[in-house]
Amino acid sequence: MHIVGILPARWASTRFPGKPLHLIAGKPLVQHVWEQCRRCQRLDDLYIATDDERIFAAAESFGAKVVMTSPVHPTGTDRIAEAVRAIPRATHIVNIQGDEPLIDPGLVDELAATMAADPTLDMATAANPLDPADPAVQDPNVVKVVTALDGRALYFSRSPLPYFRNAVPGLPVFRHKGIYAYRRTFLERFVTWAPSPLEQAESLEQLRALENGASIKVLPTNDTSPGVDTPEQAAHVEAILTSPTSSHP
User: Fold this and answer.
1) Which is it for the CA torsion 229, 72, 56, 248, positive or negative?
2) Per residue in 17-30, is it b (16+ CB within 10 Å) or e — as a string?
3) Helix (H, G, I), strand (E, B), or coil: what is residue 200?
């Protein structure tokens, strides 16, 4: 068993071109993510997967292992699958968003351990509990997930999910967090499948896995670390990192 963390880092971003190299507290954004993941205990190796020579050179300069991938992949999962072809030892892969500089290493380890412990799983991911009255429940940019009693995903949606016709005390809404762990054999199958109907309707690639019968474990987490999609969000993260009370290195 060989568990590999991969950070996809793409240059082109509609809202924030060159985002992975945007400096936050003196370091490129992707370096912050990489340094957090270096603290993980359950990863046997860690790579950055990019489509750009500038990111490749920067990653090598701060000591990361890097894999160059095609710039034309339709999804991040396709980029991960290409990168894995250059890592033949990998049996399990954790796809860690390259724009979450405050990601909790403990969550990455929990995903890796979950996949390693259960051979019936194809994938694992994470979700934050929300109060059903939270405005985020109505926000289509916030993806929700519902699970079976054993914690496996039943459905992901941009719509409010579930619909509370009746109040159920203690039942939260779960906000999906975009981190995934895969079994290598499943990842290689996944990228051969055509985009599925529900995936196309919701623009959520994880629905392709469910529509093809995959088993996805959803881990509840209190890690609400913010991602960086805009320069304003980068400034917010920098304020957190440079705060005198910050626990981040």
Assistant:
1) positive
2) eebbbbebeebbbb
3) helix
Pair type for strands 23-24 and 3-9:
unpaired
The residue assigned the tokens 């060159």 is: 18
Asked if 107 and 18 count as a contact pair (C-beta separation under 8 A), the reply is: no
Which pTM does this prediction carry? 0.92
pLDDT tens, residue by residue, 142-180: 999 999 999 999 999 999 999 999 999 999 999 999 999
Q: Which residues pair with 4 in a beta bridge?
A: 45, 93
Under CATH, which number does the domain 3-232 receive?
3.90.550.10
* Residue 233, C-beta contacts closer than 8 angstroms, at least 6 positions apart: 226, 227
- Residue ranges per structural domain of the chain: 3-232
Q: If you ran DSSP here, which 8-state letter would residue 151 be given? A: S
Residues 37, 8 contacting (CB under 8 angstroms): no
